[in-house]
Amino acid sequence: MAISTNPELLIFDCDGVLVDSEIIATAVHIDALAKCGYIISADAYNSRFIGMTDQQSYSIIEAEAGFRLPKDHHECVTAEIAKRYTGNLKAVAGIHQALEAISWAKCVASSSDVEKLRLTLEITDLHDSFTPHVFSASQVARGKPAPDLFLFAAEEMNTPAGSSVVIEDSVAGIQAAVAAGMKVIGFVGGSHCPPGHAEKLMEAGAMRIFNRMTALPGILAGL
Asked: Are 95 and 190 in contact (CB under 8 A)?
């Protein structure tokens, strides 16, 4: 797909880009997995599974562990994440100011399910900045790193894929944007991003990296 020189649409991932949520969610996931006998560190979990849907990560874990997770595993994890978000979740520093300064059309395209997205955006006062243009991997056949979600978002926003720019914090998300024929910029300002994460995003296909959301308007102006 040809990438336009005149971008029209800005597509944000949510977790780790709009909200600093990954460190909270990862802690819940690794605690729940440990109770099932699957031990993994936060760094390893983030490196392998951030950007994927929960269902994708569960399938990989079950195949490796050789057992099925409890039927209520996802329900329990989701409830605990929601509980911790309510008291601890914050928007990424500078995102509200950045959104106000960017005149492009904007939407969210996240691996989170619809209800989790709604809760996340409401807690951080971002819901009104994007609704109704909030899209979930549960609405497409394949999650990231497949391009389906980003292509769906662009179609729903009546914008060619090649005229879209994605802001992502995960390798899977970067790969999905590249596969969709979109420009993609890597954000490494989340508290979950370890040393060396920027290099991984560049290797996956990010055109550049930034770590302060207040820098985004200037970056976009230079495209």
From this structure: no
